[in-house]
Design brief:
Blueprint: E1 4-9, H1 16-30, E2 34-38, H2 44-54, H3 63-87, E3 91-95, H4 98-108, H5 113-124, E4 131-136, H6 139-146, H7 160-176, E5 181-185, H8 190-203
Parallel strand pairs: 1-3, 1-4, 2-3, 4-5
Length: 209
């Protein structure tokens, strides 16, 4: 594959959307050939799966059903969008990917990291990110910044204890996959975090300044 694949991870309210917008602007100014995607989503089928998963009416969905739906959305996105874009030499930037399933379903829902690793391997069929940026902010700080959970999103509505487990899950992923995941402290301003991200992307040879 000729292109590069980078993913962004983190809990709710860490400023992921703002950072992706700032990075998008930066890359556009540089004229980089970039595809921005979000998970679950990024194509018509995966967006439908997203609506099913996040629907607050599906409160009785089991953890395994949820994990497999995320994996199904990922399988579709990987084959239909990510692989072709990488083959064309593009820079693919994805808002969430395999580590979200590891942290949310594997650890916070308690399905187990190893089981989720297997599921992730099947879903992305060998297309692993070249680099993952973990936006690191403890959930207590993130939620007070964000001003509470989004009422339309079943996952966000889980209590603080769930989001603390998500955070622990990410920390575990950072340990297990330290060659791929770089942690970026986002307790400072959005501009500070953006500068740190550009620094990491440059150091890793994804961007030239
Ligand atoms: P978002 O906050 O980026 O819109 O993501 C939607 C929600 O889905 C968010 O609460 C995190 C959750 N999620 C998982 O639980 N597992 C996954 O594999 C992915 C991709 C997202």
């Amino acid at each position: 594959m000729k292109g590069k694949f980078i993913t962004f991870e983190g809990g709710e309210g860490v400023g992921k959307t703002t950072q992706l917008r700032m990075l998008g602007q930066y890359l556009q100014n540089k004229g980089a050939d970039t595809v921005f995607l979000r998970e679950p989503g990024g194509n018509a089928i995966s967006e439908k799966i997203r609506a099913l998963i996040l629907d607050t009416g599906n409160a009785d969905m089991t953890g395994m059903c949820e994990a497999m739906l995320y994996a199904a959305a990922r399988a579709q996105l990987t084959e239909s969008v990510i692989k072709p874009a990488l083959q064309e030499g593009k820079l693919v930037v994805c808002d969430r990917f395999i580590d979200s399933t590891f942290a949310y379903q594997g650890i916070a829902r308690g399905l187990g990291g190893e089981k989720i690793d297997m599921l992730n391997k099947m879903a992305c069929s060998g297309t692993f990110p070249d680099l993952t940026i973990f936006l690191d902010l403890p959930p207590t700080v993130a939620f007070s910044r964000k001003g509470g959970a989004d009422a339309d999103d079943r996952l966000e509505q889980e209590g603080l204890a769930f989001h603390v487990r998500v955070y622990d899950g990410y920390k575990r992923a950072c340990e297990l996959y330290k060659d791929r995941i770089v942690s970026v402290d986002c307790s400072g301003s959005a501009q500070d975090t953006h500068a740190k991200i550009i620094e990491v992307l440059s150091q890793k040879g994804i961007l030239t300044r």
